[in-house]
Task: inverse folding
């Protein structure tokens, strides 16, 4: 019984805060899941602002050779 | 429908409130990984309201959700790309870090990132090779929660272990950092929703 009542009060709590939001968020997630996780990962990729090999950089390296 | 259904049953359909949690985590993961595109913004703007009984944590969640819907309706996708880059990427050091490691104390043995990796390994999960973000990215942690709830059907104890270690202590400082960042706009609403949701989670785990 002590197993059951925590679960029940948790359930009631979640339902009372509006887990009718389930339909809401589910619809949103479903609509955007045409973006596959791989696509989400791809959008997570961002342009590098750091080091990039360019001719300018290679020229510099050339000048450092003794 | 039997009230006895537990998350451990292999054929369980998730109870609606647990499915809702998973979905919210999924949405937060998506929003923190990258700025939403026009389609997602439209979906958010057109979403139904959360209806809460007049209970303090619930009311905060419903309000934060409505705020997010309104922010989504007003948002311009290109401006959002810039906002996201400005806040979370920046030039040099980002104004707001999305990495749990920035908010968690290092233990003597393991950095938080190493802890997350070890936890993932225990659960036979790993970062997708195509994903560039380290595993302690807040979006990744939300995705982990979603996965635990909806796909691994982890017990509440297992979920709470992850939540308490990696989400609960990170959400508030992270969301506060967003809230106080001068260039935050749409993401202010995302952060306040994330915070309200994490509060609800915290309370629910304690029941």
Result:
């Amino acid at each position: 019984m002590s197993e059951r009542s925590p679960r029940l009060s948790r359930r009631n709590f979640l339902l009372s805060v509006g887990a009718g939001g389930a339909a809401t968020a589910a619809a949103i997630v479903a609509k955007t899941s045409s973006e596959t996780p791989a696509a989400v990962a791809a959008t997570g990729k961002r342009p590098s602002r750091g080091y990039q090999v360019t001719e300018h950089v290679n020229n510099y390296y050339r000048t450092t050779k003794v | 429908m039997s009230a006895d259904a537990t998350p451990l049953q292999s054929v369980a359909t998730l109870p609606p409130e647990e499915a809702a949690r998973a979905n919210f985590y999924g949405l937060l993961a998506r929003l923190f990984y990258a700025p939403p595109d026009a389609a997602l913004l439209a979906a958010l703007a057109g979403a139904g309201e959360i209806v809460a009984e007049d209970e303090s944590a619930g009311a905060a969640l419903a309000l934060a959700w409505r705020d997010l819907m309104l922010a989504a309706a007003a948002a311009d996708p290109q401006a959002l790309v810039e906002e996201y880059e400005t806040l979370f990427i920046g030039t040099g050091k980002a104004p707001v870090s999305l990495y749990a490691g920035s908010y968690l104390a290092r233990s003597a043995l393991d950095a938080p990132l190493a802890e997350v990796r070890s936890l993932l390994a225990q659960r036979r999960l790993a970062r997708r090779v195509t994903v560039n973000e380290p595993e302690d990215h807040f979006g990744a942690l939300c995705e982990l929660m979603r996965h635990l709830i909806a796909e691994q059907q982890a017990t509440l104890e297992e979920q709470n272990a992850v939540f308490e270690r990696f989400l609960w202590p990170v959400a508030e400082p992270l969301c506060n950092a967003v809230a106080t960042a001068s260039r935050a706009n749409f993401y202010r609403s995302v952060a306040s929703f994330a915070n309200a949701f994490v509060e609800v989670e915290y309370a629910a785990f304690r029941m």
